[in-house]
Specification:
Distance between the termini: 70 Å
Radius of gyration: 24 Å
Shape: flat
Strand content: 5-15%
Helix content: 40-55%
Structural class: mainly alpha
Strand order of the largest sheet: 1-2
Largest sheet: 2 strands, antiparallel
Length: about 110
């Protein structure tokens, strides 16, 4: 015969199902609010955004960020992108694309 084990008070979950449901709903609402704010910001700043034709995923990036990547690419030693570990390779490979890119001079997205 099995006995029901008593759970120590410090390990009990004192929240009931309704409380958990409310907290999950608030999280979903907060995420929705964040997405709404992001979409509003992009709408207001559309003239400062470009779609990068060379980065994966149809990247939407500000012109200022694009220029920063280009400057950083010119400052880095990209002669040997194989130098370093895998993460260095990915970083250098991504910057090497930006080295001679002219996307920032093109029209906005």
């Amino acid at each position: 015969m099995l006995r029901k084990m008593e759970v120590p008070p410090d390990l009990r979950d004192n929240r009931n199902d309704e409380t958990v449901r409310r907290q999950a709903h608030r999280k979903e609402g907060a995420m929705g609010d964040m997405q709404k704010k992001i979409n509003e910001w992009i709408t207001r700043n559309r003239q400062n955004m470009i779609r990068c034709p060379y980065q994966p995923g149809n990247l939407l990036i500000t012109k200022q960020s694009c220029q920063r990547r280009r400057i950083k690419a010119r400052q880095e030693d990209l002669a040997n992108v194989m130098k370093g570990d895998v993460m260095d390779f990915i970083y250098r490979q991504g910057l090497s694309i930006c080295l001679n890119c002219d996307a920032v001079e093109r029209k906005a997205a």
